[in-house]
Amino acid sequence: MADGLEEPLLNINEIQGNSVPGFNKDYQTFLFFDIVEPVLAKRWLSYWTPYVSTAQEVLQFNRLYQLMRERRGEEPDGITATWLNIAFSYEGLKQLTDDLSVFEDSEFKLGMKKRSGILGDPTGTSQEQLEGHVKNWLFGGERNPVHLVLIAAGDDHVKLKKWTELIKESTRQLPGADPGTGGGIRLVFEQEGQARQDLKGHEHFGFKDGISQPGVRGRVSAMAEDYLTRRIIDPSDPRATLYAKPGQPLIWPGQFVLGYPQQLRDDSLHPKQSDLQMTGWVSNGSYLVIRRLRQDVVAFWEFVRMEAQNLGLKPEKFAALMFGRWPSGAPILLTPEEDDTLLGHNELANNHFMYVEDSQTIKLRPEFAESQKQLHQAKGDPQAALCPFAAHIRKTNPRDETTDTGSLSDSLVRRILRRGIPFGEPLPVNFETGLTGSDQYGGNRGLMFVAYMTSIEKQFEFISRNWMNSKCEPKEGGHDPITGQHERDARKREFELMDRTIVLDKEWVIPTGGEYFFQPSISALRNVLAK
Question: pLDDT value at position 489?
Answer without folding.
Answer: 63
